[in-house]
Amino acid sequence: MKDKRFKVIYSQGTMDVQKILVDRETGVHYLQISSGYAGGLTPLLDRDGKPVIRMINDNE
Questions:
Q1: Is residue 50 over pLDDT 70?
Q2: What is the pLDDT at residue 1?
Q3: Domain ranges for the chain
């Protein structure tokens, strides 16, 4: 089976859920928000407005 492209590195909440996902191919971090039937996804930005990019190890 092919590895999953995204890895969840942080999650909080049960009804209103916030997660940080990392794209294993590009290293870009995303913030995902879910609340009931609504939700959103956006790249996580640093203080200069640039996307947070950091490759992760599968051991993290």
A1: yes
A2: 46
A3: 6-43
The mean pLDDT value for 27-51 works out to 97
pLDDT at 24 over 80: yes
Q: Which of 53, 51, 42, 36 is nearest to 19 (CA)?
A: 42
| Pairing state between β 38-43 and 6-12 | unpaired
Contact present, 44 and 30 (Cβ < 8 Å): yes
- Measured at the CA of 18, the angle between CA 16 and CA 22, to 5 degrees, comes to 155
C-alpha separations of 25 from 16, 29, 35, 37 in Å: 28, 11, 28, 29
